[in-house]
Amino acid sequence: MTDATNRPADAAGQPTAGQPAAGLPAAGQPGNPPSASAVEMMELVLPNDANLLGNCLGGRVMYLIDIAAGMAASRHCRRAVVTASMDSLDFHRPIKVGDAIILQARVNYAARTSMEVEVQVYSENLRTGERRHTCTSYLTFVALDETGRPAAVPPVRPETEADRERYRAAEARRRERLQRIGRGEGGG
Ligand SMILES: CC(C)(COP(=O)(O)OP(=O)(O)OC[C@H]1O[C@@H](n2cnc3c(N)ncnc32)[C@H](O)[C@@H]1OP(=O)(O)O)[C@@H](O)C(=O)NCCC(=O)NCCS
Fold first, then answer.
1. Domain 34-180: what homologous superfamily?
2. How far is ligand 1, taken at its centre, from the CA of residue 54, in Å?
3. Which atom of ligand 1 is least distant from the CA of 148?
């Protein structure tokens, strides 16, 4: 039971009249807003997805994160994409068999051929409606052309103050990520 929609992943942050910070694409400039590619995906957790305690397996959650994030990235650039990296992941709460798992994916930032996608994961008790945050994941996807080589992607054009905050934070994470793997400035 998978439902991928075009709804924004997070309604937080309303458009503001203020000028965007220097360096961020402004309204009217080329680029796609995060809301245009956002994905919300929902699945029922079944016994086959769980460990002996009845908790959803971490690997299953990671699989679903990768799927939701990949769809958002592909929607942003309208190309095939591959997962280049997934940042460290902390599971704050278990998701029980019989709960729904909800994944909200949005593209925070795009560089030349790569994009950072954020995925917020929640569990929902379908009887009570209680929703709990499970984890946040940041992934990097690279767009590929028809020959399988990295291809340029459109910029992200933030629309709201929340979009702009995510954009700036993603830019900083990208710098740290590339430093960590020796691909930062001067690192090749
Ligand atoms: C991702 C991949 C295409 C990058 O290839 P590459 O030869 O390093 O390509 P480039 O040097 O041109 O880098 C392309 C982009 O990827 C980014 N990138 C590469 N490795 C990265 C990593 N580990 N983490 C984050 N970004 C990475 C680069 O920063 C660059 O971004 P930019 O163009 O926006 O500046 C290649 O490593 C690959 O195919 N990996 C396997 C992907 C896969 O199969 N994933 C599924 C799991 S097996």
1. Hotdog Thioesterase (3.10.129.10)
2. 36
3. 3
Tens place of pLDDT per residue across the chain (188 aa): 333 433 333 333 333 434 455 577 777 778 999 999 999 999 999 999 999 999 999 999 999 999 999 999 999 999 999 999 999 999 999 999 999 999 999 999 999 999 999 999 999 999 999 999 999 999 999 999 999 999 999 999 999 999 999 999 999 999 999 999 999 875 55
Among protein residues, the one with the nearest Cα to ligand 1's atom 18 is 84
- Of 142, 144, 176, best ligand 1 pocket probe by most atoms within 8 Å of the beta carbon: 142
Distance from residue 120's CA to the centre of ligand 1 (Å): 23
Tokens 């103050």 sit at which residue? 161
